[in-house]
Amino acid sequence: MKQRVLIGFLNITYFNYIKMWGATMPVDYNEFKGHKLIVLKRGDDDKYPFQFGKGKARLIVENFDAIKAFAEEEGTEE
Questions:
Q1: Secondary element (H or E) of residue 7
Q2: Per the domain annotation, does 77 fall within a domain?
Q3: 12 or 75: which leads in pLDDT
C-alpha cells in the first residue's frame, strides 16, 4: 500500500510540476530485474529518458523542496 501511495504522490507532484512549467512530458513505467521503474521522457522520441525506482523516488519525495529550489535557481541551464 505504501508503494501505491508513493507512486500516486509522485504522479501528482510530477503533474503539478508540469502544470507549473507548462510542459507536457509522457510518463511511462518499466521493470528492471523485477523492480518497477518510473520513466520520465521529454518527448515520445526521447532516447535517454530519466528513469528510477522506488528507492530514488522516496529520496526525491523527501527532498522535493530542495530539488524544486535548485530547478528554479538562476544560472546555467541544461
A1: helix 2-21
A2: no
A3: 75
